[in-house]
Design brief:
Helix 1 crosses helix 2. The protein contains 8 helices and 7 strands; from the N terminus they run αβαββαβαβααααββ. Strands 3-2-1-4-5-7-6 form a 7-stranded mixed β-sheet, sandwiched between helices. It is α/β, with parallel strands linked by helices and 201 residues long. It is globular, with a radius of gyration of 17 Å.
């Protein structure tokens, strides 16, 4: 059975990790691309708690959105944007935002990335991610649920393949909330190794 989509599950955790790890500046507002924008509950809570200025650009394709946003499939919208205009990319996904992360890496974005990765549908992992780290398509098709048992580890391996050595995260069952910084070569602002199974916000 498919996992029901629930907006803002574990909202407190999501708010905390963003407050503690956003690259705040005293000189200008934080520039956020909220790729699963919804009604902006998380970033409104962050602004209320911190009193900081936040310029949030939301992407969403739901039909009950009346506030200003970029309407459409976030993969297509992100692919046509210059992500370097933002300090933060927020991927608060219902599944694993593999295609969206690929765009972030392909565009050589420098900044902070927040990710919600949920192993829905019996722990499914995107086949593209598994093939990127060396599994054959035939093997994936034969045993798709087998990969769900080590899904987060495979996700970490894929992040490492894309140059991410450290993350900060918290995992609850098959729901993973994490952040990492993509910085210029020689710099490293993150706080936990990417192969660590538990982290703190």
């Amino acid at each position: 059975m498919a996992t029901k989509k629930t907006d803002n599950h574990y909202t407190g955790d999501k708010v905390a990790i963003r407050i503690n790890h956003s690259p705040w500046s005293d000189d200008r507002p934080l520039r956020v691309l909220d790729c699963y924008g919804g009604h902006g509950i998380i970033w409104r809570a962050i602004q209320r708690k911190t009193g900081k200025q936040i310029n949030r650009t939301a992407i969403d394709q739901r039909k009950d959105m009346f506030q200003l946003h970029l309407h459409g499939d976030n993969v297509k919208v992100m692919a046509g944007m210059d992500l370097k205009k933002f300090d933060v990319i927020d991927l608060d996904a219902y599944g694993i935002p593999y295609d969206q992360l690929k765009i972030v890496f392909d565009q050589n974005f420098k900044g902070t990335v927040f990710v919600t990765a949920i192993q829905a549908m019996r722990g499914g992992i995107p086949s593209g991610l598994l093939m990127d780290i060396g599994f054959k398509n035939e093997m994936i098709r034969k045993s798709p649920t087998l990969f769900g048992r080590r899904g987060f580890q495979y996700l970490l391996e894929w992040l490492a393949l894309n140059g991410i050595k450290k993350i900060t995260h918290r995992s609850k069952a098959r729901k993973h909330y994490f952040t990492f910084d993509i910085v210029d070569d020689g710099e490293d602002y993150s706080s936990h190794p990417a192969d660590k199974s538990e982290g703190l916000f």
